[in-house]
Structure formats: structure tokens, C-alpha cells
Amino acid sequence: MNVALQRWLILGLFFGAAYAQRPTEIAFWHTLDSPGREALEKIVGEFNGRQRDYRIAAQYVGDLREGGIKLTSAIRAGNPPQLYYGEISFVSRAVQENLALPLDEYLGNLPTDFYPGLLETGRFRGRTHALPVELHLPVLFYNADQLAARRQSPPQTWEALAAVAEQLTTRAARGFTVVSDIYSFNAVVMSRGGQLVRDGRPNFTDAKVVQSLEYLQSLVRAGSAQSRNIAEAQFALVDFVRTKTFMGIAPVTVWPVLEKRTPIPFRLGVAPLPRTPDGKLPLAGGNLMVLRGASEAQARGVVALWRYWMEPANIAEWVRATYCLPLRRSAQPLLEDFYREDPRRRVAFGGLEQAQTWVQDPEVTLWYGFLEEALERVLKGNANPRQALEEAQRKALAVERR
């Protein structure tokens, strides 16, 4: 064998081996802003550094609505990512539209210490189509200084909340903030024992749904609550920080965002959401979905990332950054110092027994806009709650029949 041929064979073997060791690339779009964004990117970076089979490229694509628009455009253009971090309410729609791959065949045996019901947020019609990572419950945030000054305790019932809101209200500030988005309204409805969806159909005219909207309207009419629509939702947080309002409902994961971005000029209070005996707390948050078009190797890579994410030490670090629920019992001992440093951090975890996935019906994405329009008309325009909800239901049912 001549020298030139020998060199070509060596180079061929070298490049062949290099190609064989090339990791499977996985494009990962997510909608987590800071501080969750940094925590997510840290987990992905560590995963990439600990193995050579997969390389995951994480990219922030805006908030939930922005991310959804970009994903839709990418799907239409034929170049979607292989992995998408989406809100759990999107899972069923993604399955119905044949976008999300089933993952059961890649999961194998899972640890047995996941808290009951949490893995169900990624399942639809008996199959796993998404892997939960950041699940949370709503809480009541309040200005602890203002409540203390009026010798008020955090309200535990909706009647008590109305009374406290009235006590807190002044000429310059309102006691409570009402935001007319579907998540915030659904939190009130579920905590009062109602359901916005029943048997996959809109349930807007149910007595408990109507009563929930009447309750919120009564707070606004009395001057005890500030109403914010979808376009103004970002200002609800500003109102609270600037002491223009003193109480509000939000996911507990807003807490670290609030503390990171804005100096809070008062003692922050965090309490469980008021709830009737038959009420539930809406379980929401983010899942990992493998989108149609991903290869088997890419699907296995996503499951490998999720398994790494779900290691107890990583869950504990993730919870410290995002304040979300720890998905496994084995992570709890690693979080005792975190909870001991600030007992308020246990508030959301304490509601786990009352948690229920807030929505898993694919049709919701088709008609939730009608509901939000009705909420704004009632809370901003003083429309009749029952009539507005009846109209929203008619529109929703009309869309279903098309």
C-alpha cells in the first residue's frame, strides 16, 4: 500500500469515527423568562456537559402567547423545533392537531415517588405526550404592612376577602386587583367549586361560574377592586408594587420574578387562595413536548434531559429558582433549609392535596377569547354577568359546531 492511500484510509477512519460520535442535535424553544430562564439554561448546559449522545440548544422565544405565535409560524413553514416548553393547557390541543409525539415507549420505569396527579398533566387520553417540569398553584399576594396597620389577617374565605379589600381601600388605592384573563378567573371559579369546562364543553352559564363573576363585579362596583384587562395585565404587578392595590391573585412563580426585578417597598405577604369546602386549586405550569417530525433519537434525548432534570438535587435547585412545586418526594429533604429560611415558601406546596389540572380540553384554545371578552365587558364595562357569559357560551358552541 502506498503512503498516499494509507493516509487517505487513516483520514477516512478518523472522520468516520468523528461522525459516529457526533451528538444528536435537539432544538429547544421555551417561554420561561428570568429567573427561570437562567435555571433552565443551567440544567440544559449541565446535561450537555455530562454526556455525549445529545446536544440540546435552548432558545427563549418570548412569553406563552409570543411563543405560541412563533411556534405556529414555524410549523407552517415546516421548520419547528424538536422540543417545545408549553403550558399544560396546550398539550391536549397539540395532541388533537397531531403535533405532540407520544413518549411512553421511551420512558421505561419511572421513580415511584412522584406526587400523585402531577404526571397526569402531561397525559391525554391515557398516553404521555408531555413531561412536566414547572408546575405551580395560585396564591394570594398581599401587602403585609397594610394589613397589619389595619389589624387584619389574610382572608381565608371569599367573603372575608371582600371585607378586607373594603378595609384596605382608600382614595388613592384599591384593596384588590381583578385581572380579566381566563387563568385568573378560572382560579376564582375552581376555588369556589365551579368548572369552566364540563365534559369537554364550555360551562360558562353554570351557577357557580356566574356567581364567581358577579362576586368580582361587586368588588369593582364597590370601589374595593381595580380591574385590569388582558392588555393591562402587566400593570397589575406595577399597581401592587407601587401600593396602588394591596392584594392580588397570581401563580406562586411570580414571587421570584417580583423580587428579582423590583425592590418591594413593604413586607410581602403570601397566603393560600381562599377556597370553599368543595373548591379546588388550579394546577398549571410548563411541560416538555416532543413535536411531530422529531426522530426517535431526539425523542430519547428529550426523555434523557427530563430524567436528569427530575433528579432530586436538580429538582431542589429548580424549585429554589422558580418556587414551583417539587415533583418528587425525594426532593423534599433537600428543600428543608429553603423552606425554613422563609416559611411563606411552603404556602403553595400546602395546597397540593386540593390541586387539580386547570384545563385539559383541546377546544379551550378555540373559545377562551370569547370568555375573556365577556370578562372585560363585565369588569370594565359593567355589563350584566349572566348575559355576558350566556353570549360567550353561544359563541363558543357555535365554533364547536363548525
Automatic annotation (TrEMBL):
**Residues of the signal sequence?**
none
**Its principal location?**
other
Tell me which Pfam families the record gives. Answer: SBP_bac_8
Keywords for this protein:
Signal, Transport
- Determine if Signal is one of this entry's keywords: yes
| Keyword Transferase in record | no
Location(s), subcellular? Cell envelope
| Gene Ontology, cellular component aspect | cell envelope
| The family this protein is said to belong to | Belongs to the bacterial solute-binding protein 1 family.
Put simply, this protein is called Sugar ABC transporter substrate-binding protein
- Say which species the protein is native to: Meiothermus hypogaeus NBRC 106114
